Amino acid sequence: MKFVIVGSGLAGVTVAEALAKGARHDVVLVTAETLGYYSRPRLSHGLALSDEAAAKIVLKRFDALPAGVRLLAGAEAWFIDREKQRLALKNGDALDYDVLVLATGSAARIPGGLVASRPNFMTLNSLDDLLTLRRRRAKARVRTEKPRWAVVGGGLIGCEVASDLHKAGDSVTIFHREARLLELQLTESQSQALHEHFTARGVEVRYSQDLNELPRPYDGVIVATGFAPRVELAKEAGLATARGIVVGETLRTADPRIYAVGDVAEVGARLYPFVSPIRSQAIWLAEHLEGRAQAAWAPPPFTPVIKVHDFKLPAVSPVS
Amino acid sequence: MNVPLRRFTCQVCGHVYDEAEGDPAAGIAPGTRWQDIPDGWSCPDCGATKADFALMAA
């Protein structure tokens, strides 16, 4: 069997490694990334780290992948020819597949009001983004001891990066659209505890900030207002998409030869953008593709982790 | 017999669980052996499950 997998995040790499075991299949992994497999959950705490520790965010260089995985790094998928079962790449190459696995992950979602300001703010969605931010911070520190940051978004990534910049010694203001932090993950009293944690440390939080222009003056603005699954490949191929690529409980699209897994997969009208369910999906999918998984994929119990330095969530069960 | 304290690493994000240190933020006291950590415990950095950790060579 020839498997072509698009994307080298947790989902894509886990599927590729599992399928490569036993060397019975031809496994090709296509990725726009160039450095290696890295831990996305760690990116939001990658600012206070030393250069040496930050380099360890890359957990596995691409040349350390199992021999059975043929890797095409720095390559972007362009379109799917479903009839010919062929994936075209932007560099002009094409790959034939028996099964295509879309593990294209997600991009940073930018609020409409800020799209026009795009060159003047940063996001934290990829290792490249982190490296850009670290360079930007180093540059700011040439001019000032304590760079001032605006973090737009009081969700998971916004709170985590604000906490990390504060730990690194910088001044941080969070601009949140809603009336409380992490309103999707926390109860009101937990949000309040997080608010108090931040303000006690000098991190300012401003609420009801639906911005149409960038806050100023700051040494840097980071926009962390959610994620957008990369559905374009599937959409242009005529497959159903909603927030993500619509798949059934076997992670299969309406095309029996195309699957989606990870951030980009919308299963039963839900996305599962967290480590545990994504790893579970990837391992399950590899078994399914080898004919070993019988029942449908079912999400494991999981609790999203909120990584704010020195903050312990008060013991109230989070809203689901 | 004293079994030496061990370290386990999260295969997803690289976080290290050191038996000597435990995970006090999650109520796991220093010195807690790997097998005594409840199955519902998850990686404090990325939320991966206990099963996603592997023993590190000493």
Quick take:
The complex is a heterodimer of chains A (320) and B (58). Chain A is of the alpha/beta class. Helix content of chain A is 24%, strand content 22%.
Write a structural description.
The complex is a heterodimer of chains A (320) and B (58). Chain A is globular, with a radius of gyration of 21 Å. Chain A has helices at 10-20, 51-55, 127-143, 156-167, 188-200, 232-236, 275-289; strands spanning 2-6, 26-30, 36-38, 58-61, 69-72, 77-81, 86-89, 94-96, 99-102, 106-108, 148-152, 171-175, 204-206, 220-223, 227-229, 245-247, 258-260, 265-267, 270-271. In chain A, 24% of the residues lie in helices and 22% in strands. With 320 residues, chain A is an alpha/beta fold. Chain A contains 7 helices and 19 strands. Chain B is mainly beta and 58 residues long. Chain B has strands at residues 7-10, 16-18, 53-55. In chain B, strands 2-1-3 form a 3-stranded antiparallel sheet, with no helix packed on it. Chains A and B meet through helix 7 of A and loops of B.
Features:
heterodimer; A: 320 residues; 19 strands; 24% helix; globular; B: 58 residues; mainly beta
Describe the protein's topology:
The complex is a heterodimer of chains A (320) and B (58).
Chain A (H helix, E strand, L loop, with lengths): L1 E5 L3 H11 L5 E5 L5 E3 L12 H5 L2 E4 L7 E4 L4 E5 L4 E4 L4 E3 L2 E4 L3 E3 L18 H17 L4 E5 L3 H12 L3 E5 L12 H13 L3 E3 L13 E4 L3 E3 L2 H5 L8 E3 L10 E3 L4 E3 L2 E2 L3 H15 L31
Parallel strand pairs in A: 1-2, 1-9, 2-5, 9-17, 11-12, 11-14, 12-13, 16-18
Antiparallel strand pairs in A: 3-4, 6-7, 7-8, 10-15, 18-19
Helix pairs in contact in A: 1-7
Chain B lengths: L6 E4 L5 E3 L34 E3 L3
